[in-house]
Write a structure and sequence with these properties.
The chain is of the alpha/beta class. The chain has helices at about 25-40, 60-75, 85-90, 105-120, 135-145, 170-180, 200-210, 240-265, 275-285, 295-300, 425-430, 440-445, 455-475, 490-500, and strands at about 15-20, 50-55, 95, 125-130, 160-165, 190, 225-230, 300-305, 305, 310, 315, 335-340, 350-355, 365-370, 390-395, 400-410, 415-425, 485. The chain folds into 2 domains: about 10-165, 3-Layer(aba) Sandwich (Rossmann fold), CATH 3.40.50; about 195-515, Dihydrodipicolinate Reductase, domain 2 (2-Layer Sandwich). Helices cover about 35% and strands about 20% of the residues. α1 (about 25-40) crosses α3 (about 85-90), α8 (about 240-265) crosses α9 and α9 (about 275-285) packs parallel to α13 (about 455-475). Bound molecules: 6-O-phosphono-beta-D-glucopyranose. The site of 6-O-phosphono-beta-D-glucopyranose has 5 residues, from loops.
């Protein structure tokens, strides 16, 4: 049972299991996974028969590992840290030193897991979380397969969670899927896209399919266009080496932005079961027209940030001056695309996507702009133009939904102004601390793959962006760096919408300084 279908606090605990984390000494474990287990434990969603086994190269025993993570978790949870909950969880956390490439260590792992099963009543159910670089996905699952740890029976299950990047193009994604399939079936693989863990992303489905008034207008007859913005104010931080290989387009669009697009554009699935949702998402991805090389020149924009000043006054260096980055790098830190779909619902409706680092704000939203109402009835009044109606789904921060529409400005003459109705999650549901991994881990323990990516969804995502990356690779950019840190990206991004007589939505940055929008 997915947390989508149930109230978080009323959901039953997951079935007994051991969660085995490869890379337990790393950042993801400290910042996300252990805090997520803490929140699940606080909500009573971990079963009595639960244990976590951390694996890494560090030479530690259970006690030393527990002490090491205790301080880290307290720091990362801040005020949400509750000693009673932590003590209940930490006593179920174990550690084992391992060389992930050493077959003999996996024999020891089998023995250790049997001991934990006997001691903790975890029933031989294992969730392997691979918090390691993608180059290790194949080698680790091969070794797990060799010692039989991926073999499930009627009485127990074996599942593996991995996180992006799932390859860097179609070919490498297929190779990765093939190597994973060597040792397990597709339904044992849980590919995380952390955007699917965000409440507001899941809410797109609820907004569309649990209400009756949006669906009738959710199509080309009423919608003029859609804009998806994932703006980040951070730079590449310490990930220069990874980012040099990826760039903004690969890092964000085939996964996070296409996830948003898929939920937004899909037909109602026959149920919220994983397979039904996957089929509809894949139909959307199938309907997206890959860009021709000529279209890439006008429908795709890339950028790289130069030194600049952020809205808070902080002066930041250029991308090319970041650690691990080639000082002459051609890697994109900004990408914008115009995509269209070949299907009955969306024919002729452009979807504009943009994402970038070091932009003026940290902000993710989906804006659906409706067609303008005909102004005929206001002909002999002061109203010469009506602003279009808009639904904005705010993904982060200040999660919520905003509807903008026209209303009469009070007074003796007929004047129409655009007004907003705003729903904020926090006002209704409070601010429940969460990392975004709680739902995903809980769903995986329950065998619910609705919020995880299937192999063919990953491959379809790469097919779409590869039409762009191939052209970009053949034609290195001549104008990089082409936008200042703290701005809204390169001017060419403005042309992308202007060419169609449209404009990017102005993002309202909470504080005083608003940078000029491109175009
Ligand atoms: C990751 C990307 O997948 O998503 C990062 O690799 C990016 O480059 C991050 O910063 C954005 O996630 P969020 O949840 O902060 O929008």
């Amino acid at each position: 049972m997915s947390l989508i279908q149930t109230n978080f606090t009323e959901a039953p605990p997951a079935p007994p299991n051991v969660m085995i984390i490869f890379g337990a000494g790393g950042d993801l474990t400290r910042r996300k996974l252990i805090p997520a287990l803490f929140h699940l434990s606080a909500a009573g969603l971990l079963p009595k028969g639960f244990a976590m086994l951390g694996l890494d190269r560090l030479d530690l025993d259970d006690q030393a590992f527990r002490e090491r993570i205790a301080g880290q978790v307290e720091d990362s949870l801040g005020a949400a840290f509750d000693r009673r909950v932590w003590e209940g969880l930490v006593s179920r956390i174990h550690y084992m030193q391992i060389d992930m490439l050493e077959g003999a260590d996996y024999e020891r792992l089998c023995e250790r897991l049997s001991e934990i099963d006997a001691e903790r009543g975890t029933n031989g159910n294992y969730l392997f979380y691979l918090a390691v670089p993608p180059s290790l996905f194949g080698p680790v699952t091969d070794r797990l397969g060799d010692v039989g740890l991926l073999h499930q029976s009627e009485h127990d299950w074996r599942r593996v969670i991995i996180e992006k990047p799932f390859g860097r193009d179609l070919e490498s994604a297929i190779a990765l899927n093939t190597s994973m399939h060597r040792n397990m079936d597709e339904d044992q693989i849980y590919r995380i896209d952390h955007y699917l863990g965000k409440e507001t992303v899941q809410n797109i489905m609820v907004f569309r399919f649990a209400n009756s008034f949006f669906e009738p207008v959710w199509n080309r007859n009423h919608i003029d266009h859609v804009q998806i913005t994932v703006a980040e104010s951070v730079g590449v931080e310490h990930r220069g080496a990874y980012y040099e290989e990826a760039g903004a387009l690969r890092d964000m669009i085939p996964n996070h932005l296409l996830v948003l697009l898929g939920f937004l554009a899909m037909e109602p699935p026959s149920s919220f079961q994983a397979e039904a949702v996957r089929i509809e998402i894949n139909k959307v991805l199938d309907a997206i027209k890959p860009l021709t090389p000529e279209e890439v020149l006008t429908h795709a924009v890339r950028g790289q940030y130069d030194a600049g000043t952020m809205p808070n006054g902080e002066k930041v260096p250029a991308y090319r001056a970041s650690p691990g980055v080639n000082p002459k790098s051609f890697t994109d830190t900004y990408a914008a695309l115009k995509l269209t779909m070949d299907n009955w619902r969306w024919a002729g409706v452009p979807f504009y996507l943009r994402t970038g680092k070091r932009l003026a704000a940290h902000y993710t939203e989906v804006a659906i702009q409706f067609k303008r109402a005909p102004t005929i009835m206001f002909k002999h009044t002061d109203v010469d133009e009506l602003a279009p109606d808009m639904v904005v789904l705010r993904i982060q921060p200040n999660e919520g939904i905003q509807m903008s529409f026209g209303a009469k400005i009070p007074g003796p003459t007929m004047q129409v102004g655009s007004v907003n109705m705003d729903f904020c999650y926090e006002d209704y549901f409070g601010n429940r601390p969460a990392t975004g991994y709680e739902t995903l881990i809980y769903d995986c323990m329950n065998g619910d793959a609705t919020l995880f990516k299937h192999a063919d969804t990953v491959e379809k995502g790469w097919e779409i962006v590869q039409s762009v990356t191939d052209v970009w690779a053949a034609l290195p950019p001549r104008d990089f760096p082409n936008y200042a840190a703290g701005s809204w990206g390169p001017c060419a991004a403005g042309d992308l919408t202007k060419r169609d007589g449209r404009m990017w939505r102005r993002i309202a940055v909470p504080k005083a300084r608003i940078a000029a929008e491109p175009g």
